[in-house]
Amino acid sequence: MFNLNDIIRPNVLKMKAYSSARDEFKGSASIFLDANENNLGSLAGEKYNRYPDPHQKKLKARIAEIKGVQPEQIFLGNGSDEAIDLLFRMVCRPGQDSMLHLPPTYGMYEVSANLNEVALQAVQLTGEYQIPVEEVLLNVKPTTKIIFICSPNNPTGNLIETESIEDILRAFNGLVVVDEAYIDFADARSWTSRLQEFPNLVVLQTFSKAWGMAGLRLGLAFASKDIISVLDKIKPPYNINEATQELALQALERGEALKDMIEEIVQERELLLEALPDLPAVEHVYASDANFILVKVTDPNGMYNYLLDKGIVVRNRSSLPGCEGCLRISVGTLEENQRLLQAIAEFK
């Protein structure tokens, strides 16, 4: 039976959150002399001389409406990387505890684990880039506090089978983090719809991909109210700036534009999936549920450098176990994709 208090670090359980000036203030006022701000104004524009809402109440309320969750089930971070880092700090004792991930996968799980002195456990995905559930559960130790599952997976692009994630959620008494950075491009239901069913589930999403807001750095974590309350306790007080909160609220009102963008990206993805296998230098094209495609080519290093010379930047993933010979190619605009296909066709 999962019990959150059994896995939270003892020092985190005992600590008190930083109390900011805006946390202590209640009610309305016209003169603010509590936060050592510059009351003359800001050289960056109106309102930016004031600290932002540390709890992002308006933004969370709107996200909750759209996602069908409670505001208390939402954590907002400086990119989803902040949420990943805080999850380690929340439950993993440095030098004592461990995490389990499923390579080839997103590299920041490993980076954050190393930064927090958390031991790495790796179970390779199968040849079909799915989870070998029995092997995962056999590798779980008493010190294993988090399992990271990326779905759709980066860099392979595929969704992870629902049944496999369910089996791990039911069997593992630690946090299971399902990273859904690319879920908007997939024909699948988000795991946010099952938060009530699994108290150890954490779902990561981002505004960087489908929403096209990578430059604003806004990530999301969805979980039980208990998990979110701990993340809120240990985060920096003003981790989401005012401009990001304002622009995100504006973007959330453009649901139809988001839908149109996603449809266009998916359409371009399907055209690339159809065209790439016919090119001589391409050995295999993997199915994708994301906004990128993993492509196995005859000469990955040569192809990568050749495309660079053509002014086209892709990601060389050929050094990753399970991705030998592969490049990861983001879906671009119609014109960009045509230039890419033409360049690969001319590669010798």
UniProtKB/TrEMBL annotation:
Alphabetized Gene3D superfamilies for the sequence: Aspartate Aminotransferase, domain 1, Type I PLP-dependent aspartate aminotransferase-like (Major domain)
Q: Where is the Aminotransferase class I/classII large domain?
A: 39-344
What is catalyzed by this enzyme? L-histidinol phosphate + 2-oxoglutarate = 3-(imidazol-4-yl)-2-oxopropyl phosphate + L-glutamate
Q: From the Swiss-Prot or TrEMBL record, what is one GO molecular function term?
A: pyridoxal phosphate binding
Annotated EC: 2.6.1.9
Per the UniProt entry, what are the Gene Ontology biological process annotations, in alphabetical order?
L-histidine biosynthetic process
* Enzyme class, broadest EC rank: transferase
**What is the similarity comment for this entry?**
Belongs to the class-II pyridoxal-phosphate-dependent aminotransferase family. Histidinol-phosphate aminotransferase subfamily.
This chain belongs to which protein, by name?
Histidinol-phosphate aminotransferase
Please tell me the species this chain comes from: Pontibacter mucosus
